[in-house]
Amino acid sequence: MTETSGRWARLAAWFDTRLGLTYPLLREAPRYSINPFYWLGALTVVAFLIQGVTGIMMMLYYVPSPADAFGSTQYIFQSVYYGRFLQTVHLYTAYAMIMLAFMHMMRGYFVSVYKKPREMMWVVGMVMGFVTLGFGFTGYLLPWTVVSKSATDVGIGIIDALPGTISSFLSFLIVGAGGDATELLRFYDLHVVVLPAVLLVLLTVKMYMLEAHGVAEPTTGPPIEQKASRSLPIFPDVTIYLLGLAAMFGSAMLLISAIFPLSLPPMYSPQLAAQFTAQPDWYFLWIYQILKISAFEGSGLPVALGLVTLILVALLALPFIDRGSSRRIAERPIFVTVGLIFIAELFVLAYWGLESPGQVIATDDAAMILGAVALIVGTSSFALYTVFGQRGAPSPDSREKVSKMQGKFATALAFVLLLSGGAMAIGASLNAIVRVVLYGTSASSLDQLGLSIGFLSVVAFSTVFLMYRMELAGASLKRRFDWLEIGWSANDSN
Amino acid sequence: MIPIRRVVTLLLVLQLVSTVYLWTVNGIGTASEARFAVFLAVNLLSFSTVTYVYTHEKWEEAVSRGWILAAALGLALLLLFSLYFS
Questions:
Q1: What is residue B86's three-state secondary structure?
Q2: Mutation test of the interface with chain B: which of A255, A256, A259, A262, choosing the one with the most B Cβ atoms within 10 A?
Q3: SS3 call for A361
C-alpha cells in the first residue's frame, strides 16, 4: 500500500516538476473565500465555457442564412446525436450565465466590493454583464423561429427609437442594409466571434486586477485582523474546490435539461409573425414592460429609453457615486434599500411583462404598482434597520442575548407585516378615491373606500402601539399613556 | 465517524459505472437524451462529493455527515429518476 502511494507520489512529483503545476503563479486564496457566494463570477465563466463547447458543436451543422437557419436547427434537433440535448443545455446555461452574472453583480453591490481599490474591476465587470446580455440578444435570433425573429424585431424597433446618430450607427453595426440575410449574418458573427473575443479580453483584464487586489474581505463578523489569516494554494486546493462547485452547477443544468427539453417553435414567416404577439426573452422583459407604459408610447419612447440608460449608467458608475468608506451592510441603509427596491422592481416588471404580452400599461396602474412595491420594500428595509440598529445585531453568545434576538426578530416581523399592510391599505384607498373622482359615487366604490380607510386606521393604530411599546422598553418616553401600557410590567423593560 | 475511504470508493465506482453506461446510450430521441443527461449529472454529482471529501480531509476540517447523506440521497434519487426515461 505504502509502496503504491509512493509510486503515485513520485508520478505526481514528476508531472509537477515538468509542468510547474504547483508553481505559485497565482496568489493564494484566503480560507473565508471558500464559499459559493465568492465564486459566482467563476461559475459565470464555467457557464460561458459550457456555452463555448456546446456552441462550437452546433456550429458544425448550423447555416446562418434565412433560407437554411431553421432547417439546420431542425436537423440538429432531429438527426444529430444528442442534438436536442446540446441545444437545450446551450439555452439553459445561457439563462444560468445571465442569472449568475446578475447575482454576482448584486452580491458585489450589497457588500460594496467596488470600493477602493476595486473601482475599475466593477466597471469592467459591468461591461462584461452588458456583453453577456448581448450574447442573449444575438443568440436568440439564430434558430430563425417565429418566436426568436419576432422578439429580435422588438429589440431592433427599440434601437430605431434612439436618437438619430446612435440609431443609425447601431443599426448599421448589428443589422446592416441587406435585409434579413445581412441581419442574421451580423448577429451570427457577433454571437460567435466578436462578443466571445470581447468577453475573453475583458475577463483577462478582470482576472489581472483580481490577482493584483485579491479577494475582497468579508463584511460581516469580526474585523478581518481577528480572523485566522489562513490561505489556500490555487493548485490543487482551490482548483479542486472550484471543479467540485462547477460539477454541482453542471449537474443542475443537466437535470433541468432532462426534465424540460426544448421544443422548436415554427419557422419564421411574415404571415405567421403577424398572428403572433412578439415578446423579448425574460431577461429583457423588465425593459420591455417600462417601454409599454402608456406615458412612454410614441413620442415618449426616448424618455423611457433615457430612463433605462440612466439606470444602467448609474450601475456602471456606482463606485464613483457611493463614496462612503464603510463596506458593512449594517452601515449602508440607503444603498442597501435602493438595491432591494431595484431587485423587487425588476422581478415585478419581468413577471408583469410575462403576464401581459403586447398590452399597453396604463400610467396610473404602473405608478400604483411600482410605487407600492417601492414603498413596501423601502419601508420594510428601513424598519429592519430601525429595529436592529445600524450597527447590526450582536452575536448571541448567551441565552439572554438569544432571547433578545428572538424578541427583535418578532418586532421586526411585526413591523414588516404592518408596513406591508399599510402600503396595501394606502394603495387601496388611493384607488378607491380615484374611482370615486372619475366615475362618481356608487355603493361598491364607497364600500371599498370605507374598508380601505378602516384597514389603514387599524394598521396606523397598530404601528403607533408597536412603536410606543418599543420606546417603553427603551425607557425613553417623555409622556406616558396608561391605555397603551395594558399588560406591561416594569420587569419587561429588562 | 464516516468511513470516508469507503464512501469515496463507492462514489468512484458509481462514476466509473455511469461513465461506461453513458457510452451505451443511443443519442437520438428525447428519452435517451434525457437518460444521458441524468447519468452525466450522477457522474458530476459524485465527482463533486469526492472533491468535498478530499478538500475537507486535506484542510483537516470535519466532513459533514449531513452533506454526505444528502449527496447519497440525491444520487439515489437521480438513479431512480433515470428509470422514468427508460
A1: coil
A2: A255
A3: strand
Task: Determine the pLDDT at residue A413.
Answer: 76
Q: Is A173 at the interface with chain B, CB within 8 A?
A: no
Q: Which residue has the cell 434525457?
A: B34
Which among A48, A144, A137, A62 is positioned nearest to A90, based on CA atoms?
A: A48
Which residues of chain B have a CB within 8 Å of the CB of A252? Answer: 41
How many other CB atoms are there within 10 angstroms of residue A247's CB atom? 21
Which triple of cell numbers denotes residue A337?
434599500
C-beta separation of A428 from A448 below 8 A: yes
**In contact, A486 and A472? CB cutoff 8 Å:** no
Q: For A133-150, what is each residue's pLDDT tens digit?
A: 999 999 999 999 999 999
Q: Is the pLDDT of residue A315 over 60?
A: yes
| d(CA B36, nearest CA chain A) in Å | 8
Contact between residue A322 and residue A121 where contact means Cβ atoms under 8 Å apart: no
Write out the DSSP string of A194-208. Answer: IHHHHHHHHHHHHHH
If you measure CA to CA, which chain A residue comes closest to B43? A251
Q: How many residues does chain A have?
A: 494
- Enumerate the domain spans of chain A: 26-277, 408-493
**Between chains, do B44 and A261 touch, taking CB under 8 Å as contact?**
no
Its CATH class, for the domain covering A26-277, is mainly alpha
Rounded CA separation A17/A27 (Å): 19
Which range is least confidently modeled, A87-96, A428-437, B77-86? A428-437
Express each pLDDT in B37-53 by its tens digit: 999 999 999 999 999 99
Question: How many whole angstroms separate alpha carbon A447 and alpha carbon A452?
Answer: 8
- Write the pLDDT tens digit of every residue in A7-30: 888 888 888 888 777 676 778 888
Alpha carbons A377 and A241: distance in angstroms, whole number: 36
| B25-36 pLDDT, tens digit each | 887 888 889 999
Interface pTM (ipTM) of the complex? 0.92
Q: Which residue has the cell 437557419?
A: A69
- The domain locations on chain B are 4-83
Instruction: Give the DSSP H/E element, type plus range, for residue A30.
Output: strand A29-30
Q: B44, A251: Cβ pair inside 8 Å?
A: yes
A365-403 pLDDT tens trace: 888 889 889 988 988 888 888 777 655 444 445 455 556
Q: Quick check: B45 and A84 CB within 8 A?
A: no
CB contact under 8 A, A250 and B59: no
The shortest CB-CB distance from B44 to any of A81, A241, A250 is to: A250
Q: A 227-266 residues with CB below 8 A of B?
A: 232, 237, 240-241, 243-245, 247-248, 250-252, 254-255, 257-259, 261
